[in-house]
């Protein structure tokens, strides 16, 4: 199975790259990176484009203008600085927009111990990678206010998405000669969504006998990462878990200044640091550009420029070794504004000066081209052998308590094809009463099942029941309860039999 080819160089032998300097500290980090890459003699044509805060200010709600999208569609390759996002309100993240528009479904976040970057873990040889699913999960960003007081965010996990990320994680491990892959999920609680990744991972693992694979519950993974990080080699996980775990792993090796990443898709790849725009350091020539530079190194490897990537990584290691010896470093390593602090530009100059030198004490891994899983981009219509609608979950906005609500619904459903099975409040069964002491809110999930065993409810039957309930209560959302090939396609409430 051949890899989806990385973009080919143009007729002048140079690869074209969409370069987005970004916000806050982005332009300084990107400038340092471009200078080092150019000094290493790699033929790249950078096309400078905008995205982020300046674009939001111009009134483009996505933060990514048409010219930038056109450039990415042409180059298939992006090197970018961080983009600022309004927090908790307003526009969507321009970063997430870019990752999703180009279906860069895998976010690769490596961390390794570096010379002279002292942490409580120094000397333990941390060298691990988080492979984070990048476009699904809660980051699909599908949110609703179901009632004025209750918000919902849909956690969407697809079979196809799990297949892609699981396969890519194994291929990535192979490309770096790594031998151990852990899958971290919360499938003990979210059996359908997180469980889908666990099940897919375990199925795909059989095709990669050369890589030891195992599952770990994500909270224990966080615990183990702090306690014994050296036991991990590669970790594959869902989007939000990966976002959090990879910030944690960055901290293990000295912080976000040293954490690069790649967003890989079928035919577009976006390389950027894990960190954000760190606005308090913007324009002060004090930020550590290593994370963006190492993202550039990942880009070179993606392009097959292994020698240049090796050369730059060694130059970074040598520079860090020299800094450690001289007791100097970037602000995040030795403290900002001290006589020992070196600025962003001076640090990049030192790396350029060390191009061609090899670190004797620190190794650089051998890499080979990553074989991207070839999974069709055609929409997947997953067919079941037998699909049956056996009930509905109706979400109702009401000030009533569970018992009043329960008896009212039982009455309303008389003469329909549905009967009330239970009501839950934020996932815990409250009717029929269980003796639980829940703090009920005005958002009730009312589970109604077909009266007749073995029935496959028609839309007419569902709508008739909805009309009767709707005459008495304000319902806000309905979910069909389906049996898929004999197995329930829904989970039970806490306390439900
Ligand atoms: P942040 O920009 O990553 O900064 C958090 C802290 O991390 C900084 O205060 C600093 O820690 C440290 N840090 C970040 N970059 C560093 C570097 N290159 N060298 C050394 N230390 C570094 O996170 P944030 O403050 O939460 O987010 C700021 C903005 O960036 C937000 O608008 C957010 O949405 C956006 N963001 C963008 C991306 C992206 O473009 N991919 C990613 C994350 C966040 P100290 O304070 O301890 O020095």
The class by helix and strand makeup works out as alpha/beta
What kind of sheet is the major sheet? 10 strands, mixed
The tally of helices reads 14
Mean pLDDT: 94
The kinds of small molecule bound in this structure are:
NADP nicotinamide-adenine-dinucleotide phosphate
State the share of residues found in helices, binned by percent.
25-40%
Low-confidence stretches are none
Question: Within the largest sheet, what's the order of strands?
Answer: 2-1-3-12-11-4-5-10-8-9
| Ends apart, CA distance between termini | 47 Å
Rg (C-alpha, Å): 26 Å
**Strand content of the residues, in percent?**
15-25%
Strand elements, count? 18
Tertiary shape: elongated
Description:
The protein is an alpha/beta fold and 497 residues long. The chain has 14 helices and 18 strands. A 10-stranded mixed beta sheet has the order 2-1-3-12-11-4-5-10-8-9, with helices on both faces. Strands 15-14-16-13-17-18 form a 6-stranded antiparallel beta sheet. It has a two-stranded antiparallel ribbon with strand order 6-7. Strand 6 (143-147) and strand 7 (150-153) form a beta hairpin. The longest helix is centred in the middle third of the chain and has 21 residues, at 306-326. The chain is elongated and about 85 Å long. NADP nicotinamide-adenine-dinucleotide phosphate binds next to loops. NADP nicotinamide-adenine-dinucleotide phosphate (NAP) binds at residues 25, 82-85, 95, 255-257, 272, 275-278, 287-288, 291, 332.
């Amino acid at each position: 199975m051949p890899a989806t080819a990385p973009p080919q160089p143009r007729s002048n032998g140079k690869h074209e790259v969409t370069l987005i300097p970004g916000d806050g500290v982005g332009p300084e980090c990107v400038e340092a990176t471009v200078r080092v890459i150019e000094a290493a003699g790699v033929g790249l044509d950078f096309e400078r484009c905008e995205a982020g805060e300046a674009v939001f200010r111009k009134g483009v709600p996505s933060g990514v203008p048409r010219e930038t999208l056109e450039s990415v569609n042409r180059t298939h390759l992006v090197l970018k600085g961080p983009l600022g996002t309004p927090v908790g309100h307003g526009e969507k993240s321009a970063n997430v927009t870019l990752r999703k528009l180009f279906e860069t479904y895998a976010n690769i976040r490596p961390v390794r111990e570096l010379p002279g970057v002292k942490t409580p873990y120094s000397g333990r040889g941390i060298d691990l990678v988080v492979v984070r699913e990048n476009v699904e999960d809660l980051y699909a960003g599908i949110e609703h206010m179901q009632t004025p007081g209750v918000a919902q965010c849909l956690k969407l996990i697809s079979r196809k998405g799990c297949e892609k990320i699981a396969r890519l994680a194994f291929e990535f491990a192979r490309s770096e000669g790594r031998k151990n892959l852990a899958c971290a999920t919360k499938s003990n609680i979210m059996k359908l969504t997180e469980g889908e990744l666990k099940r897919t991972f375990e199925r795909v693992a059989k095709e990669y006998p050369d890589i030891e694979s195992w599952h770990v519950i994500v909270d224990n993974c966080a615990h183990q990462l702090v306690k014994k990080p050296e036991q991990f080699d590669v970790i594959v996980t869902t989007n939000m878990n990966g976002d959090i775990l990879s910030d944690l792993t960055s901290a293990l090796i000295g912080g976000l200044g040293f954490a690069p990443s790649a967003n890989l898709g079928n035919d577009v790849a976006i390389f950027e640091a894990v960190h954000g725009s760190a606005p308090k350091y913007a324009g002060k020539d004090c930020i550590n550009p290593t994370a963006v530079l190492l993202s550039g190194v990942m880009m070179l490897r993606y392009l097959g420029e292994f020698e240049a990537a090796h050369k730059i990584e060694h130059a970074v290691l040598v520079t860090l070794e020299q800094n450690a010896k001289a007791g100097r470093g970037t602000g995040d390593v030795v403290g900002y504004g001290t006589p020992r602090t070196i600025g962003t530009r001076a640090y990049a100059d030192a790396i350029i000066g060390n191009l061609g030198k090899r670190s004797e004490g620190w190794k650089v891994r051998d890499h080979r081209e990553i074989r991207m899983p070839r999974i069709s981009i055609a929409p997947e219509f997953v067919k079941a052998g037998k699909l049956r609608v056996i009930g509905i979950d109706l979400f109702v906005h009401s000030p009533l308590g569970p018992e009043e609500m329960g008896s009212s619904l039982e009455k309303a459903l008389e003469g329909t094809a549905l009967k009330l099975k239970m009501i839950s409040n934020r996932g815990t069964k409250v009717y029929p009463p269980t003796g639980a002491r829940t703090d009920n809110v005005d958002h009730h999930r009312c589970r109604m099942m077909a009266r007749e065993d073995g029935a496959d409810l028609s839309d007419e039957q569902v709508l008739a029941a909805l009309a009767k309930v709707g005459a008495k209560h304000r319902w806000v959302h309905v979910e069909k309860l389906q049996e898929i090939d004999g197995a329930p396609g829904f989970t039970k409430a806490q306390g439900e039999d």
